[in-house]
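User: Show me a protein chain along with its predicted structure.
Assistant: Here is one chain, sequence first, then structure tokens.
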Amino acid sequence: MDLRVLTEPQQGATYDTLLRVARAAEDLGFGGFFRSDHYLRGGDGDGLPGPTDCWTTLAGLARETKSIRLGSLVTPVTFRLPGPLAVQAAQVDQMSGGRIELGIGTGWDAAEHAAYGIPFPEKRFERLEEQLQIIKGLWNTPVGDAYSFTGEHYRLTGSPALPKPAQQPHPPIIVGGRGPKRTPRLAAKYANEYNSNFRPADQVGDSYVRVRQACEAIGRDPDELTLSVTLVVACGRTEAEIKRRAEAIARITPPNQVIWRFTPQQMVDKLGEYHAIGTRRVYLRTFDLDDPGQLELIADAVLSQVRIP
């Protein structure tokens, strides 16, 4: 099982803080360092020092880390046009030596869009499907050929479809969500990974069944799709340590965030439940970036026990 670190910098983090945590995750042996793509803090608080831009951050980390996978979870289609996003992601993939992954979604926070003057259109799911088509189309077009696309929301004419990413045929694409029909269909058709989040294993398992059925419906081998989950964990060796971490996380998270409270062995056992239903990758949603001890503990007492195929 691949354990990755997912950060939420819109809650308040500088680039230097993200770099420190990314390098720590790399040194500790985590499989990836990912970040959200948001501009507005969730919950109470001032959000100081303010948000950082997702793809600007990833470009910097691409040059200042060596081996860890990097990516977005997830970039809203409302923030960027598909052509420029394909260029950005391909360039950052080149800068990283082929370590970038693109998580992409519809966008959902109307207040966030209003706060930064970003249009918040209807039919965002339809825009997501068109963006997936366009991004993959641009990346997969042979060098020397042109790419065109005509849809309801986007139109490209005679694009040179450059630059190309370092990874071939393209960087992994992640699609996630809880929708019972449209999300599984998009994941099956366009994605390399399907991500579910913040739910017990049996509920996550139900979503996996739907996405595997969607793969079978289009003749795709379901085993080609990596299944992942996102969790928020307060891990400690003692109840006091767990309580301290859970309270610190709760102070800087959006309301109603589910926080799993574990000793290392309890965490291993819980990850085993997710593995049993098909999970092969876990994103540890990390809010408290000033607590390196939790990642160190998980790396020391959990990581080696869950590295199974």
